[in-house]
Amino acid sequence: MTATARIALNRPLRRLFDYQIPDGCRIEPGQRVQIPFGRQFATGLVVDTNVTPPANIQLKPVNRALEPWPALPAETLKLLTWAADYYQHPLGESLFMALPPALRRGQPAALPKETFWQLSGREHSLPKQAHRQQALLDWLAGEGKPQATRDVLAAGFSRSQLKGLAEKGLVTECDPPAHTAPDSPSTPLPPLTEAQQQTFADLPPVDGKFHCTLLYGVTGSGKTELYLHYLQNNLTADDQALVLVPEINLTPQTVARFQRYFGDRIEVWHSALNDGQRLATWLRIREGKPVIVIGTRSAVLLPFIGLQTLIVDEEHDSSYKQGEGFRYSGRDLAVFRGHLNQCPVILGSATPSLESYANTQNGKYGLARLEQRVGSATAPEVRLLDIRSRPLEGGVSQPALSAIRRCLDSGQQALVFVNRRGYAPVMMCFDCGHLMECPDCDSRLTYHQRDRALRCHHCDYQQAAPTVCPSCQSEAFKPIGQGTERTEDTLTNLFPDVPVIRVDRDSTQRKGSIQSILERVNSGDPCILVGTQMLAKGHDFPKVTLVVVVNADGGLFSVDFRAPEQLIQTLLQVSGRAGRSRDPGTVLVQTCHSDHPLLNSLQQGRYLDIAQQLLTEREAAQLPPFRPMAIIRAEAPEMSESLAFLDQIRNTLTQDALEVWGPLPALIARKAKRHRAQLVVLCEQRGGIREALKAACQQAEQLRTSRDFRWQIDVDPQET
Ligand code: ADP
Ligand code: ZN
Ligand code: ZN
């Protein structure tokens, strides 16, 4: 009998393809192969080699293996196969997600050979006019190790300067410098405080078994310090480790801290890497080099072969969930990976997700708590400021403005949190009531004053901002509400003596801009930071002692069942930026609902008490994590088609254990000209929902739909 391979392709197909393995060719699961497909060749990934194809079919042979080893080692292959099934995503597309782009395209799994240059050490005196060549020599000497041609060019030198020096015998070609882990780190780790030591003892043992521990550590308590100690104590020289972070570019300090102790052992993985960097890093991991990877979500899919520890920092962060295509949760896959690999997993957060907290209560996870800030820093005091009948300037009330003034006068920095970018979320005519709406979505256009544009934050639509009402030509056509730009302008006028620094997606678009902003803030001079969510994420601003939340009410009355949890997390995370050093911090939360129980609990309670309260509500409503949830979404040029499609899917979801809501139009029913609807599915048990969803997906594939129709499934959705 001929050997057969079952192969997955990088296509949105819920099926696999069988091929014959030619005699003398050894192929194992996880390997990349080239196969004839239609009239072309395609790159495939072998899923299985022990298959019996239908007897009467003549299979085509595999053309060749692209390399003699599996690109996806066994554990990575298992992880992805499990994930594709769990998230109901086509296996082929899921598996290819774990390859760097070059390998998806079928290119060789090897780095192009690069020429490296070093100083020859020969004595020299260059003519005066050769000052660029001299500068190049000085630069090479300064770098202290061989440099690739690419780096020489990136540093602003030319090939001809390099050639000139080579001809004079002053530089020579050489081998690439070896990756070296420093034998002893350049800076020793600071000893753990007593509180940290106690918490450290509660972190999971490294004993060849799976343990998952939730590390609840208030902001500024030293979670990162604990991770560093944990890795230092537990990793051998051969081990690999993974540290997942929500976003790398926003918090370059975190990577720098790891690099200080682990040197070249640190590899970073995030979306801003180019294809060459991705391939190089991927290969080092696949070769089993003892790297510690600090990466965003997709780093959990890397082909580790000696993984000993997984850490997920800020585990509550919603950016761990991929929002399109293969909608996996990086955090949840990290836990599953630890399970597959029988190694410890630490989930760290000052505001743990309700899912993870519930898992500490049902015995699945351990809980380690660190409720003291480092040194003399104390938890910031949170005060609610009712603004119902107070005049506001740029959204900020008088008491908050006075507090900012006092903070600056005492040489400190203030942070003002506004949850929306742009100048104002609405433009309205005060004569006829006309509102500027997106022509393609059910949403208002945001006014961006810096470039006088109206933009939709839900699609790509934008237009120049009119100066008079387009409907009645009235000049009483004005922005309403607060965005970061407006607050920035108001504060610049009121506090002309200090810099006002805006941090949002618009002000940080240029590469490196966030770094220069952080440097300015960390210089320590008095300033006011104005910004969105971005400011809430993991930054260490020692001189910020005051945080003003311009408006906390957005999440109070949302229909999304996760909104209260997310509101509290965001408020506590922004609050956590205050008073991280010696001087105590104050947080002023402006609201029109100062009697709202959720906001009051924020003032009094510990996060875990609030989480407990929210969990009780979730349990009463039998919402996640008490029942698993999935959403099936449909979008089409007409709402009727979306609803009709979901109606048919609903008919297949008949099991007793299921509860199905809808189909109903989505919250923003029309987005980018498409009409969106959804079905929400809840189930008593996880196993039950998986089978039901699989059947629903098979049904969905069979249904006849118009060309413009799209559907998707979202298991454990972050947004409803
Ligand atoms: P978290 O991640 O919990 O917000 P960090 O690990 O960033 O906290 O620690 C907050 C600050 O305290 C950092 O500036 C860190 O360098 C400092 N720090 C933490 N632990 C110690 C320690 N044991 N000794 C000295 N400084 C520490
Ligand atoms: Zn008008
Ligand atoms: Zn729009």
From TrEMBL:
UniProt-listed PROSITE patterns:
HELICASE_ATP_BIND_1 (PS51192), HELICASE_CTER (PS51194)
Per UniProt, where does Zn(2+) 1 bind? 429, 432, 469, 472
State its cofactor. Answer: Zn(2+)
What is this protein identified as?
Replication restart protein PriA
Q: Where is the Helicase C-terminal domain?
A: 460-623
Its Enzyme Commission number? 5.6.2.4
Family the UniProt entry places it in: Belongs to the helicase family. PriA subfamily.
Domain called Helicase ATP-binding: residue spans: 204-370
Q: Say which domain of life the source belongs to.
A: Bacteria
How would you classify this enzyme at the top EC level?
isomerase
Q: Which reaction does it catalyse?
A: ATP + H2O = ADP + phosphate + H(+); Couples ATP hydrolysis with the unwinding of duplex DNA by translocating in the 3'-5' direction
**Subunit structure, briefly?**
Component of the replication restart primosome.
What is any Pfam family matched here? Answer: PriA_3primeBD
Map out region (Disordered) in residue numbers: 172-192
Q: How is the cofactor bound?
A: Binds 2 zinc ions per subunit.
GO MF annotations in UniProt: hydrolase activity
InterPro entries in the record: DEAD/DEAH_box_helicase_dom, Helicase_ATP-bd, Helicase_C-like, P-loop_NTPase, PriA, PriA_3primeBD, PriA_3primeBD_sf, PriA_C
Report the protein's function: Initiates the restart of stalled replication forks, which reloads the replicative helicase on sites other than the origin of replication. Recognizes and binds to abandoned replication forks and remodels them to uncover a helicase loading site. Promotes assembly of the primosome at these replication forks.
* Binding-site positions, Zn(2+) 2: 438, 441, 456, 459
